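Review form for a predicted model. The reviewer records the input and the model, then writes brief findings.
Reviewer: anonymous (R2)
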Amino acid sequence: MSPSTPTPDVNETPDSLAPAASPETGPATAPAAPAALTPAAADTTSAGDTNDGGIRGDEVEIESVVDPATIRRAPRYKAFFTTGALVGVVLGLCLGITWLGSPESLGVLKPGVYLTVVVLGTTTLTTLVAGALAIWADKRSLRR
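Model under review:
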């Protein structure tokens, strides 16, 4: 639904530096200049507020905490899990087909079900191992 008042042309250049009016709020007014903070007004501020530009006493500037020369080498979890799943599928297929080709598997009634269970089991196991390795690598990157 469009507003009942026309919207200003976005390509029009402003005549002054005053902010433009919006249809929802009406004409914009210039912000009032901040009043000087008197000692009586300073007593009304909360315990954590200070008059140093909005930074509280418990906040720390980012430059004092972060060293730009240090790069954290965090692992990419998606890559670890994908690699673990692919290794599990290949390993499961190799194990299942090798066992199904052996003479011991002659009594198996449904070899496809056996192969599927072996592939899913090895895929689950290798994906969990890959996730554990990713967590280990992440913890190790935090220690440095």
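Findings: Residues 18 and 30 are 7 Å apart (CA to CA).
Further findings: The chain has a mean pLDDT of 75.
Recommendation: see findings above.
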